[in-house]
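[stage:ingest] chain + small molecule (zinc ion)
[stage:ingest] validated
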Amino acid sequence: MKKLADKTSLKVLNRLERYISAGSIKAGDAWDVFSRPDKALEAKVKELKINALELESLKKLKVLVKDKLKSRISGRCAYCKRVMGQHGMSWHIEHIKGKTLNPQFIFDMENLTFACIDCNYTKSSSVDKPNLSHEIINPNSKAFQYSKHIKFIHIATENLHYLRYSPISTEGTATYTKLAFKRLELIELVTSLNPVIRDIATRIDTRVDDLDESDDSLKEFMMALKDAIT
Ligand SMILES: [Zn+2]
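[stage:predict] done
[stage:export] tokens:
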């Protein structure tokens, strides 16, 4: 990521890394400075505060990073392969090795990809935890081919979306289970059949998107709400 940064944003990234190493800020909060620079302008914690020049520089960097990552995954979530942008599915920059346990890779492009809000949330709550091994697929690993791990069929008509996954490797099976793909199969079907539910699910996704890194319990509640309605 630093290769894409100009002098100003590079200084911010280096500064944040130093603060993480020193233990004065958490990796998740440092990431928020990059992902939500508008908020960082008003940050109360001095280590997380940026100035107007840095704001503009971080915004430009964010666009460059997103473009680069998008080009790698052909507009689909790196894990579930659903098309990004459909049914309000927003683009989430995803840390393959989770931020909290692997803060040294927080700004490393090789550790970044794009994931849909469902995979992003489920992974952070069921994979990126201490003492859990990271045994799911790594979309950035060398010579990675999705089809060697998971086959999927996705048929979409105007009123019906049918989605089914068949894991065919150990990592594929772990991905299917840990990222709750069964749930995605159900969400896809139910939201395609019922526009009202689809609308509510999309609004929940949008609200979850707006929450800060620290609002874990509210995120958990809202995603459970989405499960309940689908
Ligand atoms: Zn996904």
